[in-house]
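Async update (no meeting this week)

Hi team, since we skipped the sync, here's where things stand on the single-chain job. The sequence we agreed to prioritize is pasted below, unchanged from the tracker. I ran it this morning and attached the output directly underneath so nobody has to dig for it. Comments welcome in thread, and please keep replies under the output.
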Amino acid sequence: MRKFLGAALSVGAMTIISLAAPSTMARPVLKQSADFVVPEANQAVGVDDKYFYAIDNQGIGKYDKKTGKLILRWQGDRSGPILHLDSAMVMDGKIYCAHSNYPEWPMTSSMEVFDAETLEHVDSHSFGINWGSLTWVDWHEGHWWMGFANYDRPFGPNKTPYGHKAATQIIKFSKDFRMAEAWVLPKALLDKFDDMSNSGGSWGTDGFLYLTGHDPAEVYKMKLPKGGGSILEVVEILPMNIRGQGIAWDRSRGSRNEIWGIVRATAKEKAAGGDHKVTAFRLEEAQ
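Output:
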């Protein structure tokens, strides 16, 4: 059941932490507006005007935004070819999902497309082994934007880093997937990810790119470097009741400037009967 939380709750109103110089101007705050128990919310969430779409490695759950009622579920075959879905961006009746073969080596990536009404898989675009593991997809100002993660966490029999997280890239593509530009993340942000990497990304209606890590309960408001170079700049850090993973701004008509995320239950929480959750936050001016 949807819960509208008051400001008295600790997650109800979260002050933005800024890396910029102090300012006397009032800053906006994130106020939690929804909280749903959703078993598929293991990797990410996407949203349109009526529904949210919870993403698991090989599954998608379509839910009513107001009631949290399950509408439809898609489940891929355990043997693939869909192995590790990692985000969802909903546009013009289709769900665009980042996909990789994580944690297999070498890393391969693709964008998988589903019909939002039926959840039928309708298209695919492969990126091969060029840049790492695709973790998020978005569309902004006539271009595709995608995050390709690399990791310091060791994998495989040789226990070597899975690509080295410093090689994580945010890439801008043309409509026909021609690479236009690419940026890397600042070390201060990479340090927050420990041995993992960037897991989610979504362009806000304010013109800033919002990113997440694999685990931290916060969102990073980013901008492209204005003075030159290839390193994205951190504008602010926004605490948010999530555990990293995929996020999505609600850009549907009449939306209330909401950003959606997930709280992935830990193994200990799952053993105690807990489950994954989808959460939504509204960006409002501080009172």
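Quick observations from my side:
The CA atoms of residues 18 and 24 lie 12 Å apart.
Residues 187-192 form the longest helix (6 residues).
Reply here if anything looks off.
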